[in-house]
Design brief:
This is Rhodanese-related sulfurtransferase. It contains four helices and five strands, in the order ββαβαβαβα. The protein is an alpha/beta fold.
């Protein structure tokens, strides 16, 4: 399973797929991420074809478990070159990366 730590993610041209549940996404997510919950991936696979095909898609969840399953499935299906983000959004937050919330006026957090 291809895996990268948050500190190894590219600073330019990052393609990030967040596979957490809607409540987790709403509480706090990376500003440029695409949100498709893990359970919705098969039904929404066509959305991934719109992503740039000249670079890998980094897949993130809360800590890395769901994103590892998603990345394995995406790679096996040949949809995109997927790389799991080790430590997930918890590591993203710890590394000081930007977070935004869907709740107006609320401080973003990782659930």
């Amino acid at each position: 399973m291809p895996t990268a730590s948050v500190s190894d993610l590219p600073s330019d041209g990052l393609v990030l797929l967040d596979v957490r549940e809607p409540d987790e996404w709403a509480a706090g997510h990376a500003p440029e991420a695409l949100h498709i919950p893990l359970g919705d991936l098969p039904a929404r696979i066509d959305e991934l074809s719109e992503l740039p095909d000249d670079r890998p898609v980094y897949v993130v969840c809360r800590t890395g478990g769901r994103s590892a399953r998603a990345a394995a499935w995406l790679n096996q299906a040949g949809v995109v070159e997927a790389i799991n983000v080790a430590g997930g959004m918890k590591s993203w937050h710890t590394e000081g990366r930007a977070l935004v919330s869907e709740h107006e006026g609320a401080e973003p957090e990782v659930l």
